[in-house]
Amino acid sequence: MTEAAAELPAPPEQARTVFGDRFADALRYAELLADAGVRRGLIGPREVPRLWERHLLNCAVLYEVIDEDVSVCDVGSGAGLPGIPLALTRPDLRITLLEPLLRRTTFLEEVVKLLGLTNVTVVRGRAEEMLGKLPPVDVVTARAVAPLERLAGWGLPLLRPHGEMAVLKGDTALDELKAARAALDRLGAVDTSVVQVGEGVVDPLSTVVRVVVGESPGGVRAATRRAKAARASRSGRGGAPRRRR
């Protein structure tokens, strides 16, 4: 056990309520983050004393804005935040943890296997390279990955038509949304909002930026890339193209 792991506090009572019958798994996940997560550089040792409030519960309450029985892609999942807490609270969701770094995907695969998260798949790759490789999803999530404009460029193209990006942000959420307005329009956004979730669970409340797309997720460029990927897929299934005589 690392010195940091010894700093992991007892779970607050709210954790038992939020995670319900998966509380024991949430506790095991917190212990893994505090130990292996710190040793492997996935989280900083100073985060361990506030793992429950600042990380697990802060992410878990994202379930409040996600519909039932939908597919979710957690972009830049890192140590599994928010994807794993979300999977523990919502077994009805089909969740893909998308992460480009091998050491992180290795950790995620270990956690998924250990906790028996049958509704979770780990994929190694960059979001901008996944268009046409992953099936479109209903919801894209993320947390502290990048500024909203850049994050939207990665995440919105992965959505199905009329899907939604729901990302956890901090105090700058409204400012980021205003700054990204033009980019979001180009990327096919039709509605945006900032909401707070986690009443009675976390203080301060978790801030979520919601971006709903229309018929063209990711805009014109994404549509072009999507069509190109589809043609390449059809060509691959049909074998090598025939030569003209």
Automatic annotation (TrEMBL):
CDD domains: AdoMet_MTases (cd02440). S-adenosyl-L-methionine binds at residues 76, 81, 127-128, 143. GO terms for molecular function: rRNA (guanine-N7-)-methyltransferase activity. Gene3D superfamilies: Vaccinia Virus protein VP39. It comes from the Bacteria. It is found in: Cytoplasm. Residues 222-245 are annotated as: Disordered. InterPro entries: rRNA_ssu_MeTfrase_G, SAM-dependent_MTases_sf. Pfam families: GidB. The keyword S-adenosyl-L-methionine applies. Keywords: Cytoplasm, Methyltransferase, rRNA processing, S-adenosyl-L-methionine, Transferase. The keyword Cell membrane does not apply. Its EC number is 2.1.1.-. GO terms for cellular component: cytosol. PANTHER family: S-ADENOSYL-L-METHIONINE-DEPENDENT METHYLTRANSFERASES SUPERFAMILY PROTEIN. Specifically methylates the N7 position of a guanine in 16S rRNA. Belongs to the methyltransferase superfamily. RNA methyltransferase RsmG family. This is Ribosomal RNA small subunit methyltransferase G.
